[in-house]
Amino acid sequence: xxxxxxxxxxxxxxxxxxxxxxxxxxxxxxxxxxxxxxxxxxxxxxxxxxxxxxxxxxxxxxxxxxxxxxxxxxxxxxxxxxxxxxxxxxxxxxxxxxxxxxxxxxxxxxxxxxxxxxxxxxxxxxxxxxxxxxxxxxxxxxxxxxxxxxxxxxxxxxxxxxxxxxxxxxxxxxxxxxxxxxxxxxxxxxxxxxxxxxxxxxxxxxxxxxxxxxxxxxxxxxxxxxxxxxxxxxxxxxxxxxxxxxxxxxxxxxxxxxxxxxxxxxxxxxxxxxxxxxxxxxxxxxxxxxxxxxxxxxxxxxxxxxxxxxxxxxxxxxxxxxxxxxxxxxxxxxxxxxxxxxxxxxxxxxxxxxxxxxxx
Length: 360
Prior knowledge:
- By secondary structure, the chain is α+β, with helices and mostly antiparallel strands.
- The protein contains 14 helices and 14 strands.
- Helix 3 (about 85-95) runs antiparallel to helix 4 (about 100-110) and helix 12 (about 285-300) packs across helix 14 (about 345-360).
- It is elongated and about 135 Å long.
């Protein structure tokens, strides 16, 4: 009996010794081989470097009306490794922010990741409601989302901004360096549950500069309305118009239809986002007649009522030019030459202007 008891005691001591040896080997491995990676993981979980977006500059029209401006938003993120109950957390997100719980649950339950976005540029009031719940593993930082108060007015001209705050199209893209400013950076210190206990500033953000355009929002809106009616009346695929100040050459309107709401650019077809006035090319065609007639009137060579006898065709250099529609000899005023888009009439006016004045 005593021999059996001694044998059990020795067996227990042997097992205990093996267990302690295993623990010693595990501790040695963690402190030597895994020391650096574990230390880095610990620093990541308790100290996090956060980029603070700079306020994007505002785009104004010529009278100071805001065409594009930034408004406050809050981005919500999470560390799944610190979330004990992903389902409960997902339901809390749905209840406060409105993000579908089934959609966000897989990300919150993925413990292989240390950072996931919960909602980009969320409504700050809703995000604050989630923050008050003090759920472990959730973080919040201020961000800015772009707003276009005029809706579809000048949408193709202004372009739009992505969720990362960079201009992707139009003037937002062209003047991105001016509007964007410089983001700041700060270090957030957290407790073991993921709650922020301190914020260490490193580099302050520098707001972007404002941009003032020559566009007039009223003229722009009226031009778009005229084009909208024109497209509807003639069942046209699209229509474009540019309104200039003849004294300075300043662009007062640059309109394209059909248009789209710049605040909902993600749901607009790519074809609608294109600013056709500057991206599309057209054969000049009869538009040159406007220049020729305007030149003749400007030089006071003719008046709108000055009349010309015009044959159907005319031999010019090595070509025979004729009007688009078959006709006999006619007697047109300058106004009628323009109204009928007469090729022969435009040539007569160009000959009166001469090479030098026409080219200048």
